Amino acid sequence: MDWLWEQHWLLWHQCLALPLAVLYSLARAHLSLTWRYVSLGLGGCLLAVGTMGVYSLVVLVAALGFALLVVWVPPDRVHGWVFWGQMLWQTVCHLLLQHGEGLLPQGGGVRALVAVSSLMLLTQRVTSVSMDLQEGRIRLPQGGAASCPLFLLSLCSYVLSFPTLLGGPLYPYSYFVGCVEGSGPGAPPLPLGAVSLKLLQVLLLEGVRAGLLRGLPGPGPAAAVGGPARACLCLWGVALALRLRYYSHWGVSEGLNLAAGFGPRGPDRGGLSDGDPWTTEASPRVSEFARRWNATTAAWLRRLVFRRGGRCPLLLTFGFSAWWHGLRPGQAAGFLGWGLAVRADYALHRHVGAALSSRWGRGLYAGLSWAHTQAVITWVVLLVEARGVAPLGAWSSGGVAPLGAWSSVSVLLFPLLNAALALCFLLKPRAFS
Hints:
The protein has 18 helices and no strands. The chain is 70% helix and 0% strand. The protein has helices at residues 2-15, 18-27, 33-52, 57-72, 75-99, 108-135, 149-160, 162-165, 173-181, 191-215, 227-259, 277-281, 286-292, 295-304, 313-325, 329-351, 359-384, 405-427. The termini are far apart. The protein has 433 residues and is mainly α. Helix 4 (57-72) runs antiparallel to helix 5 (75-99). The radius of gyration is 23 Å and the shape is globular.
């Protein structure tokens, strides 16, 4: 049981909300609009206290601060206040977590991690609402937000809603209100069947992940036997196992939202998905992988930073992503390197990919591009998740360091290669036009 908790603590926390989601979905038709909002928001508060303990104050204080800013600050100025206030609060919490882990009581580390992870998701929701207010997509009631308690209740319910509190995905405030009021697309006809299917997919992913970890050699000299090719395969396997954990996390989140009546949007039924493992891992280009990985967060970053970034919006977007994730040295290096790789991918595809005319040449280019994408993402994941490699069973004592000199060289090889390609694009833009 200790192993199951260590490997799947976040999934266990999410599963605690599944009975609550089913109960809300069954009772929804018998509740007034006010009590629907109260149920979702109060359920989020109870889930926060139950999973985070005293660290739930990290999330509740941020939600309270957001509500006060909406009341006091005009809509055309509220986004700047919300953005900087929320990011400064999140940065303080990240720093306290990074430098105070040894001072936390037994079991407090997991609760603190859950709280900071939930705070990051809350940052997405509050800045999404503040941008909607700034752009006029959300109209304040006459007399301001304070004059309409139901409006404030709906905002608080949105940012603290229990289906999205621990795992997302991010969807607009207008969609949330539409589903709660019954005017939106709502849940599928048989939500329990859809939820069961999502949970089965998660079990399949976890089975694949467990088999992958058992097939990896343990850390030590044996891991480097076979030279660079075997070392490369081991690194790829560790990074893939880490990514599968994210796919499982998103799968449970999607199932939780389905159970609560927040169904997918659109005819493709994919509007609430943060990432399909089969589609994402098959991405032949680094830029395509970046758009598909954690899709609702990628869309939020495009809206928040890329479209407002002015000069060098791509690197600003990946730099902000590093800040949002916590700005550890590995995160900063990983996300900035990923940004350079995306920039290089655009240049390479326009200059080389478009020049290939034969089917054989395009197929070879697609295969090499997919291998390059996997190599870049492996490098990024291992850097960003450097402190997260420890829970991976046999790799707990040594991480990926024992793979030898190849892994050390690769840390410099991939970013330097992509930086060179990106600089070619920046210094000679006409060559790629």
